[in-house]
């Protein structure tokens, strides 16, 4: 079984999948699909942790995987989807720049990460590539945050950044048991609180008024 | 004898088109024409007289021959059932893409030559799509070429293993989108209509009739099968023979037919389940596919596989 993981390079496939779901955020037009992209990203992340836990045989990493799956893979996406449904406005993403341009910029970001981390001095745990991919995910999440208009897409960008940070930390030190799990829980809590505040503000701004009034308010 | 494998592409290309049309009709709940219908169409067109506009120049008359011969020249480079011997010393993938570009250039000129509005429309659209597709095709082929250490298609086909890496999967998906755009299939162009608002490839051929139209259509079928063959050679070449033994050739030929049937089924599935995109949305799709190809190259460079 461990041989199969090596032969089919499953870790590489999963980490590339994590990168692809982050890049797909730039091409998606509807908020629901953005939430789904984040959900797949979290599933892949927890699956990667489970695979690594299986490979090195650490029991507490299974715990981290399950906690990640439950919190980021199920609770937060359901919550986000509920908020998207409650916002009785258009479900379009409405970025500041076109999809093709933002795809290109995220491709450039990946290239920059690869070039700058090619000769890394980092002693990584299980795979050298995962650190680069996680850094790229962090940058793409940041880019999504600054290039989207809606509050909910900015939150999703933040969550992508958090996933990337978690993956980077995990790839550098996968021997940190309790802190990682507590960090995941705490991040989830923070995310939910932030989202609650955002949701209240979005509802207050949107349900009473349409988008035209919103532009007037912005001045 | 061993240099004759490109004849397979030339002879079987209308059949592949017929199979795609039949599968597509069946998926949409129609009976559809028989799989040999493209042959009947070509034979009928070869028998018909031509009507040539008086406003056209020599380019209009030379283009069918240039397009047909350049497509056949491209077919000679590609290994179809054996990598043992072909004319690959003539050129590599880059030469192949520019041989296609030669045919496309003259086709666009001929579309402009008759001076009709639809021809010019088709030419300008074809060139717009080509600008987006060519670099994407190059990049996705380069991913396979780096791992093989050569841009020669024969060498690439020989070097591929059974186990795949993420970069190959990404390059394959980008290449499939490039094939769809190059063959004028549904998310990009609708091959079945002559509706002036949507047509790209048909717009350029609108002034042709009779023998010239048959040559252009046949060249289009050959190009389609050739692109499928390149995809098969580069990304899943298992089963291809590396010598001229008869038994190996038989196995190779049957796996080749199976792979072509698989590609035809995939194209029919994509055509039946997707809607045609608006022309100005195309840069979004093709740009996304370009990013996929770029990522495949970057991931190959980073991961080393």
Commentary on this structure:
Chain A is mainly alpha-helical and 219 residues long. Chain A has one domain. Chain A has helices at 2-7, 10-24, 31-56, 59-86, 99-116, 128-147, 151-172, 177-206, 211-218. In chain A, helix 3 packs antiparallel against helix 4, helix 3 runs parallel beside helix 7 and helix 5 (99-116) runs antiparallel to helix 6. The N and C termini of chain A lie far apart (61 Å). Residues 208-213 of chain A have low confidence and may be disordered. Chain B has 305 residues and is an all-alpha fold. Chain B has one domain. Chain B has 11 helices and no strands. Chain B has helices spanning 6-27, 37-47, 58-77, 93-113, 117-148, 153-159, 166-182, 201-204, 210-235, 246-273, 282-303. Chain B is globular. Chain B starts with 5 loop residues before the first helix and ends with a helix. Chain A binds chain B through residues 7-9, 12-13, 16, 19-20, 23, 27, 98-100, 103-104, 106-107, 110-111, 114, 118, 129, 132, and chain B through 163, 165-167, 169-170, 283-284, 287-288, 291, 294-295, 298-299, 301-303, 305.
């Amino acid at each position: 079984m461990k041989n199969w993981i090596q032969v089919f390079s499953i870790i590489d496939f999963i980490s590339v999948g994590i990168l692809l779901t982050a890049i797909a955020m730039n091409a998606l037009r509807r908020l629901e699909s953005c939430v789904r992209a984040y959900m797949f990203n979290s599933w892949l992340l927890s699956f990667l942790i489970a695979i690594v836990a299986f490979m090195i045989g650490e029991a507490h990493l299974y715990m981290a995987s399950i906690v990640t799956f439950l919190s980021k893979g199920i609770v937060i996406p359901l919550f986000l989807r509920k908020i998207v449904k409650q916002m009785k406005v258009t479900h379009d993403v409405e970025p500041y720049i076109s999809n093709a341009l933002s795809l290109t910029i995220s491709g450039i970001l990946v290239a920059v990460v690869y070039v700058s981390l090619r000769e890394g001095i980092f002693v990584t745990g299980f795979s050298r590539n995962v650190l680069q991919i996680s850094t790229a995910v962090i940058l793409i999440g940041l880019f999504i945050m600054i290039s989207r208009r809606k509050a909910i897409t900015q939150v999703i960008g933040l969550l992508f950044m958090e996933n990337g940070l978690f993956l980077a930390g995990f790839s550098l030190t996968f021997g940190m048991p309790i802190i990682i799990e507590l960090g995941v829980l705490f991040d989830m809590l923070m995310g939910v609180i932030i989202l609650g505040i955002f949701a209240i503000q979005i509802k207050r701004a949107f349900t009473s008024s349409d988008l035209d009034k919103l532009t007037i308010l912005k001045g | 004898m061993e240099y004759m494998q490109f004849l397979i592409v030339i002879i079987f290309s209308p059949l592949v088109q017929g199979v795609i049309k039949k599968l597509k009709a069946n998926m949409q709940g129609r009976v559809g024409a028989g799989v040999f219908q493209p042959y009947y169409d070509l034979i009928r067109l070869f028998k018909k007289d031509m009507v040539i506009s008086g406003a056209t120049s020599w380019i209009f008359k030379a283009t069918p021959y240039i397009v047909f011969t350049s497509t056949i020249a491209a077919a000679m480079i590609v290994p179809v059932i054996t990598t043992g011997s072909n004319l690959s010393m003539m050129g590599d993938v880059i030469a192949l893409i520019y041989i296609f570009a030669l045919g496309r250039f003259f086709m666009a000129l001929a579309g402009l030559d008759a001076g009709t509005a639809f021809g010019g429309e088709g030419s300008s659209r074809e060139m717009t799509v080509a600008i987006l597709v060519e670099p994407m095709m190059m990049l996705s082929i380069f991913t396979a070429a780096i791992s093989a250490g050569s841009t020669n298609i024969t060498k690439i086909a020989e070097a591929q293993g059974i186990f795949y890496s993420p970069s190959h999967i990404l390059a394959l998906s980008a290449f499939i989108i490039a094939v769809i755009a190059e063959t004028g299939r549904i998310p990009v162009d609708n091959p079945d209509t002559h509706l002036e608002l949507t047509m790209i490839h048909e717009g350029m051929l609108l002034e042709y009739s009779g023998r010239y139209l048959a040559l252009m259509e046949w060249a289009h079928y050959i190009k389609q099968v050739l692109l499928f063959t390149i995809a098969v050679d580069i990304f899943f070449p298992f089963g291809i023979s590396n010598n001229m033994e008869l038994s190996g050739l038989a196995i190779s030929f049957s796996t080749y037919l199976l792979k072509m049937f698989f590609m035809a089924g995939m194209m029919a599935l994509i055509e039946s389940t997707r809607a045609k995109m608006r022309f100005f949305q195309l840069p979004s799709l093709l740009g996304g596919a370009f990013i996929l190809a770029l990522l495949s190259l970057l991931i190959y460079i980073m991961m080393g596989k």
